[in-house]
């Protein structure tokens, strides 16, 4: 599961008992050696879809971590890329990997940017936000985009109830809730609260038009539906969400 040079069990335990910010500061030097980094197949598939929708001007990686998404933006954006993250440690690693990028330490829930970007992306970060925080997060992202700008992020189809994947996520979320009930500061990381039907409505309420694109490199399930989709939300006037394909199941699924 981890590379030999990856974090030890003790290091992971210390991170898990820290705040989100400090925990990632501690994990940052070894983060890319863990399975928590967004897999290359997802990054490449997202880049392929965005390449067909672009080109774009300025790009923003929201909760950029060590910079996996900055590489995607660099392929489709012509006028520079910016990464935002709350962890100084993660940004330090991103700076070494992407010296061409502008990096900003900030909380995405109080994003200090407006009307400057043509494309925003985010990979694997939404589990760090409680459902009640998402409308504000989406509103902040909307404000950071120029008219017609797009906000894109991948969503993996939910596991079937009772499947090993579903039980693993249920166990993880339960353990996190117990941890946060007994220990302070909290470490928010919940995988099962990111329902695509809810997210589409929240994006539409902010003023985004929403489209879904299958990430074909991730394959399809037995019923023919994609294993993963790219949500592409376009900044426009307020109205109902649009989609070019039927939505997936509204069962709880992972944001990663």
From TrEMBL:
UniProt xrefs under InterPro entries: Methyltransf_25, SAM-dependent_MTases_sf
Annotated Methyltransferase domain residues: 60-149
Gene Ontology molecular function: methyltransferase activity
Protein origin, superkingdom: Bacteria
GO biological process: methylation
Record key words, sorted: Methyltransferase, S-adenosyl-L-methionine, Transferase
Segments of this protein annotated with the region Disordered: 233-256
Keyword match Transferase: yes
PANTHER family: METHYLTRANSFERASE, UBIQUINONE BIOSYNTHESIS O-METHYLTRANSFERASE, MITOCHONDRIAL
Protein name as it appears in the record: Methyltransferase
Species for this entry: Streptomyces violascens
């Amino acid at each position: 599961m981890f590379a030999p040079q990856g974090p030890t069990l003790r290091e992971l335990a210390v991170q898990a008992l820290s705040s989100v910010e400090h925990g990632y500061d501690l994990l940052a030097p070894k983060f890319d050696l863990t399975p928590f980094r967004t897999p290359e197949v997802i990054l490449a598939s997202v880049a392929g879809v965005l390449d067909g929708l672009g080109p774009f001007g300025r790009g923003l990686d929201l909760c950029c971590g060590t910079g996996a998404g900055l590489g995607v933006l660099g392929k489709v954006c012509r006028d520079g890329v910016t990464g935002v993250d709350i962890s100084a440690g993660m940004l330090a690693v991103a700076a070494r990997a992407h010296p061409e990028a502008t990096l900003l330490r900030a909380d995405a829930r109080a994003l200090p940017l407006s009307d400057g970007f043509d494309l925003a992306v985010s990979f694997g970060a939404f589990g760090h936000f409680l459902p009640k925080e998402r409308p504000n997060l989406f509103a902040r992202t909307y404000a950071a985009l120029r008219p017609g700008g797009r906000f894109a992020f991948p969503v993996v189809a939910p596991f079937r109830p009772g499947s090993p994947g579903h039980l693993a996520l249920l166990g993880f979320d339960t353990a996190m809730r117990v941890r946060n009930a007994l220990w302070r500061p909290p470490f928010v990381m919940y995988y099962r609260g990111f329902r695509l039907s809810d997210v589409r409505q929240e994006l539409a309420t902010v003023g985004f038009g929403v489209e879904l694109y299958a990430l074909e490199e991730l394959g399809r399930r037995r019923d023919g539906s994609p294993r993963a989709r790219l949500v592409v939300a376009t900044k426009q006037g307020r109205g109902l969400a649009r989609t070019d394909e039927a939505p997936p199941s509204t069962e709880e699924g992972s944001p990663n």
